[in-house]
Specification:
Order of helices and strands: HHHHHHHHHHEEEHEEHEHHHHEHEEEHH
Number of domains: 3
CATH class of the largest domain: Mainly Alpha
CATH superfamily of the largest domain: ABC transporter type 1, transmembrane domain
Number of helices: 19
Shape: elongated
Distance between the termini: 73 Å
Length: about 575
């Protein structure tokens, strides 16, 4: 068993110590009443066997047995609900901490992890931990109380018979030791296979349109079947181990009972033990059978909980690579003067951006163009500090962006990503996401600037129209314009748009660009685009090639240079002429 995986649970257990303590007291009381019943049964049998020496009638003891059973039932109900509630409360706290941790992590983490795997930790792994903290702790404590109390009372009746009853128990401990590590290994493997299965399912459902367009249903089904079979195989190996442990525990308990019947029966016949003592002893021995059998289930639960807690710990211990400075510099206001000094960056050991030097003055409009993979998106993401960058490479208003508070930096930047993401809310709520407390008038103004207002007016519910998951009910162009409106509503000092008009037609693009010309004002604007028409009004344009600035200048200057930019311009003009034919 991997005890170290449970170290993080200490604080959660401490927060519910009052609930657990109440549950333990109730559990002890419930078992106390249960342990009284065999002793009362012994007194009842003794009163039947020797009526002359009995101080109470059998009916009196029968009434006490019924009363003890009723109280035991009521108290046990409260003990179980109390301890199970504690497990639920801790599950709630862990889920809250998991979500808070994930929200605090940055893009490098999510680029490594699969969405399905993260969701699997929220559901299956968290359920395993809850079962351990509820049912697991309940049965562990119950087993300890029953074993200690029952063995003590059995020893009071006959120490020799007690030793005979526990003869098979060393064999159980040996099996537990041998099987424990294997259960942990197979349980962790099963959870990993389930996470892969969940990731595949989540990806399949998200890409339903692509799968059907390319008629890949059978291949996705075959891949799902393969992952499902691997998960089944891992689960069956774990089930087989549990299938060995639980029957073995039960058989050992049965063997102890058989020994007691032979040895104890002989002692009763020989007169060295009363029938009442024998009945009481067997009553206590019977109370040990279920805790003994459930030991196998508890063992499995502990190992599954350890494997799941290890996966949860991996999230809870994850740390963002983009962090606040220990002594941040808080400027009064950010104006958008950006400077890159020898900027180099790579997602792996191989650099993607190489020694980029650039000055973007406040209020300047910069266009960024280049072939796929040249580093355009990476460059603008670094300016927004979505990925970690070394000190002394990017400056905003003369201050290293690593020294600025993250909140203030990102409040000053409006970012339109390459892939527009919309939440499963209304159109208005998606636009208003860019500014807390935005008014309806501000939302409509932003929609007007992005030329989304015309489309929204055609919706039955206007801005209250639900867009569906990831904006599935909107077209690609509508989603892009909603994302643009969200960024414009923020009224940022720096506006970054990563290929924002790729999904709109030429006429809509012209309308949006005209609206932007009135909006830009004093703002610093960075536009990444494959379509040069979106960059024609930029003060300066840079052409990236293999992570380096190959060309730099205004639209006219780059055409005169007759280099890479001019070649792209001629190619796009030719394409437009062909399309008009």
């Amino acid at each position: 068993m991997q005890i170290n995986e449970y170290s993080r649970l200490t604080n959660y257990l401490r927060s519910c110590r009052g609930t657990y303590l109440s549950g333990f007291v109730l559990l002890a009381a419930a078992n106390g009443f249960a342990l009284v019943i065999p002793w009362l049964l012994k007194l009842a049998v003794d009163s039947l066997e020797s009526p002359a020496r009995a101080t109470r009638t059998p009916g009196f003891y029968g009434t006490l047995i019924i009363a003890a059973a009723v109280v035991h039932c009521v108290v046990r109900i409260f003990s179980r609900t109390t301890l199970l509630h504690a497990g639920r409360k801790i599950e709630y706290s862990i889920r809250e901490d998991l979500f808070a941790r994930l929200i605090s992590l940055d893009l490098p983490y999510f680029s490594r992890e699969r969405t399905g795997d993260i969701l699997s930790r929220f559901s299956n792994d968290l359920t395993n931990v809850r079962m351990l903290l509820g049912f697991g702790i309940l049965n562990v404590v119950n087993t300890c109380i029953v074993y200690l109390s029952a063995l003590f009372l059995m020893g009071r009746i006959s120490l020799f018979l007690t030793l005979c009853a526990v003869i098979p128990y060393p064999l159980m401990l040996l099996l537990v030791k041998r099987v424990s590590r294997r259960i942990f290994h197979h349980s962790k493997r099963a959870q990993e296979e389930l996470a892969a299965l969940s990731s595949h399912a989540e990806e399949t459902f998200a890409a339903a349109a692509v799968i059907k367009s390319y008629r890949q249903e059978e291949s996705r089904l075959a891949a799902f079947r393969e992952l499902s079979e691997r998960y089944l195989a891992s689960s069956m190996r774990m089930t087989n181990l549990r299938g060995i442990v639980i029957p073995f525990m039960a058989s050992m308990a049965g063997l102890g009972t058989l020994i007691v019947l032979f040895v104890g029966g002989a002692r009763v016949i020989g007169g060295t033990m009363t029938l009442g003592d024998f009945v009481a002893f067997n009553g206590y021995l019977a109370m040990l059978i279920w805790p003994t059998v459930v030991l196998g289930w508890i063992l499995n639960l502990i190992q599954r909980g350890a494997a799941s807690m290890g996966r949860l710990n991996a999230v809870l211990e994850a740390r963002a690579t983009v962090v606040e400075s220990e002594s941040p510099f808080v400027p009064g206001k950010l104006y958008g003067d950006i400077e890159l000094r020898g900027l180099s960056f790579g997602y792996s050991e191989k650099p993607l951006l190489k020694n980029i030097n650039l000055r973007i003055k406040a209020g300047m409009k910069l266009g960024i163009v280049g072939p796929v993979g040249s580093g355009k998106t990476t460059l603008v993401r670094l300016i927004a500090r979505l990925y970690p960058v070394a000190d002394g490479m990017i400056f905003l208003d003369g201050s290293d962006i690593n020294s600025l508070p993250l909140k203030q930096l990102r409040d000053a930047i409006g970012f339109v990503p390459q892939e527009s993401f919309l939440f499963s809310r209304t159109v208005g709520e998606n636009i208003a996401y860019g500014k807390e407390g935005a008014t309806d008038e501000e939302v409509r103004k932003a929609a007007f600037l992005s030329r989304l207002d015309g489309d929204v007016s055609g919706f039955a519910k206007g801005y209250d129209t639900l867009v569906g998951e990831r904006g599935v009910t909107l077209s690609g162009g509508q989603k892009q314009r909603a994302a643009i409106a969200r960024a414009l509503l923020k009224d940022p000092a720096v506006l970054i748009m990563d290929d924002p008009l790729s999904a709109v037609d030429a006429r809509t693009e012209e309308e949006i660009l005209s609206g932007f010309a009135r909006y830009y004002g004093w703002r610093t604007v960075l536009i990444v685009s494959h379509r040069l028409s979106a960059l024609r009004d930029c003060d300066q344009i840079i052409v990236l090639e293999e992570g380096r600035i190959e060309e730099q200048g205004s639209h006219d200057e780059l055409l005169v240079l007759d280099g890479r930019y001019a070649a792209i311009h001629r190619e796009q003009n030719l394409r437009e002429e062909i399309e008009r034919l």
